[in-house]
Amino acid sequence: MIFKKENKGLLIASFLTIILYFFFAFKLERTQFINLLVIYVSLFIAFYFIIKHGNKNIKILTGLAILFRLIFLFAIPNLSQDFYRFIWDGRMLFEGFNPYLFLPENFINHQQSPINQAIELYAGMGELNGSHYTNYPPLNQLNFLIASLFAGKSILGSVIVLRIQIILADIGIIYFGKKILEKLNLPIHYIFLYALNPFIIIELTGNLHFEPVMLFFLIWSIYVLLNDKFILAGILFACSISVKLIPLLFLPLFFQWFTKKEKSVTHGIIYLTAFYGVVIGTTILFFLPFYSSELIDNYLNSVGLWFRNFEFNASFYYIFREIGYLFRGYNEIAVIGKIIPILTILFLGFITLFRKNAHPKELITALLFGLSFYYFTTTTMHPWYLATLILLSVFTKYRFPIVWSLVIILSYQAYANLPWKENLWFVSLEYAIVYGFLIWELFFKNHHTKPYSDVHDSRLTS
Question: Is this structure's pTM higher than 0.70?
Answer without folding.
Answer: yes
